[in-house]
Design goal:
Length: 216
Amino acid sequence: PAASNWAGFYLGGHGGYAWKDDDFTQSVLPPVATGGIKASGWVAGWHAGYNWQYGRIVAGLETDFSFSDLRGDAGPGTRVFFGTTTTNVLGDRVKNLATARARLGWLPSDSLLLCATGGLAWGRLESSSTDTQVAANFTQTDVFRTTADRFGGVIGAGAEWMPWGPNWIGRLEYLHYDFGQFRDATVFTSNRAGDVPYAERRGRQTIELVRAGISY
């Protein structure tokens, strides 16, 4: 049995960096495909949980909440609707992230815990669309923003250790979030001279997060 005691309630803070992938595509015919948003930025927040210990096996439940500033834009896409040329730039921003997870770990030594985790994920995502329309007699730019709460799953792994005695725990962990498909699928066709067929495919939204933290 392990000599150290990992059981009980803990509370802590964390910070790290994340990368988000939204792999949608926009296709203009004849085939010209653009799209996909690569966002990145910082993440910081708090976590709390409870551990149960059975010899060198540690099981627990944890919840966390993070503020974030992941931002990214897609390359501009151009299409023609009814004689008007529209250039569109899509953007993503992640404002908040949270999870509720189960954890299961093993103690290779008394002061080191290796664990895997998985559970439910929530994110507040803001999508933006900047449209610049150019026609024979006018130019107009419109910006649209929508905020939505998205739910999905999260899995990950990490390591924890006790660098300053039995009450302080340092951690390093990796989490993978999957929020599924977000954007609607769109298809435009027209028999009007000069119009160009257009299609947009929904993309899967995933986030990769690496963060460090400390718990008491």
